[in-house]
Target: Aldehyde dehydrogenase
Amino acid sequence: MKSYQMFIDGEFVDAVDGRCFASQNPYTGDAWARVPSAGSEDVARAVDAADRAWREGPWGQMTATERGALLWKLGDLIARDAGRLAETEVRDNGKLMAEMLAQVRYLTQWFRYFGGLADKIEGTVPPLDKPGYFQFTRNEPLGVVAVITPWNSPLMLLAWKVAPALAAGCTVVVKPSEFTSASTLELASLFLEAGFPRGVFNVITGFGAEAGASLVTDRRVRKVTFTGSDATGRLINQQCAAQFKHVSLELGGKSPNIVFDDADLDAAVAGAISGIFAASGQTCIAGSRLLLQESIHDVFVERLLATVTNARLGDPMLPTTQVGPITTPAQYDKVLSYIDIARQEGATCVLGGKPSDIGGLFVEPTVFTDVTPAMRIAQEEVFGPVLAVIRFRDESEAIEIANGTAYGLGAGVWTRDIGRAFRVSRQIEAGTVWVNTYRAVSFMSPFGGYKDSGIGRENGIGAIREYLQTKSVWINTEAPPANPFTIR
Ligand code: NAI
Ligand code: MG
Model:
């Protein structure tokens, strides 16, 4: 078994009390890595280091250009080590090597983009209405940022948060998911190699209720940025409210893929499949509801089944595998329980609907038809390879169904009618709408949720603002007022 240490104040360390836990490989079922279990004392040490690094360390004195250069260098090191980092992720979360390798390689761009942005954050000089003053604004870092990430794409979601936070001049303490801590600890050694001052990037590993909660409630943490379940997001939001902390939340979804009868059906079938069966449906943007216009419903389902029936489940390291395992035993149980719920609610299972014969944590790609919008399978996030197919009559009904959940993360619209593409994308309540494609993301493109899918935006120029606060500075350019009891 491989043994990992946490990364605090530029050093790899064990938990103060020496506690550890094991991380499983979801494909083999083996415990493959030992990871420290942080308690409140470890968390306090990490926040201490981050707080000192921001206030006293060289980080706070560096120019934004110098900070940007370090981020750029880190990006280069990630590109160099992408293979090793991706393998570590696959071992821990069971996603396909092909996907993880592409994802990790792409992360280089986040560090370059935000590294380049670091020294382009300018203040303003308002054309002031009051003579005798000069007034300007500065954008200053918030301070210590807590970064809490889930197990589905650990390094990608980390990069979305850490790159803009560091570009803004903040320091960070990362708490990766207890199911996938290893890749974040491997990344820590690249921060060391790139030459980041100590305390700028810290990693504590452990469980949400203990390490996570201690981190969120530490008074010195000025912002929490979180990706994960809505239940945990709600709790974190309440805790941040009590301490007036800034917070960004990227939560769940029940994203609709809407196919109109004029769509390119081959493209839409491919989009529907990648929307829900890539990563075994374990993505926040999974297109878990397929809305089909009545006239194409049957032919579309037929074509979709023809492809998915032959999907190759198996070893995520193999390039020929198309569907990997579910990442955790609890998630596996959750997926199967939603399959039961869908059956009880009267949906028709036309594919899968059970554990795969190959055993382990594999669930067969599953498709339910005859789903109605009020069913739980159409309202609640499964986070697994389970597709709910819903019929609609016309554009207005499609929009009503699409918007009829608590969520609003993503949506796909498939049509050849340009007017309809604009109309529908405007009316969909979601942070991202893809027209005739699905699942595309970029470091340049803002990403986040409407409604219960979250607060705040990641990626794009605006993302750096999530880690800055504005200071207004007033300079008096005239003699003091004659009467000190009046303020101008
Ligand atoms: P979770 O939301 O509990 O975990 C995400 C992160 O939050 C982990 O690092 C965890 O340790 C941490 N955490 C948990 N409780 C915390 C607390 N009280 N204070 C601070 N940090 C805490 O999600 P989990 O249990 O891994 O998965 C449960 C469900 O969440 C899944 O079934 C899925 O539906 C959803 N999920 C959504 C994701 C998304 O990308 N939106 C990603 C992963 C899971
Ligand atoms: Mg694991």
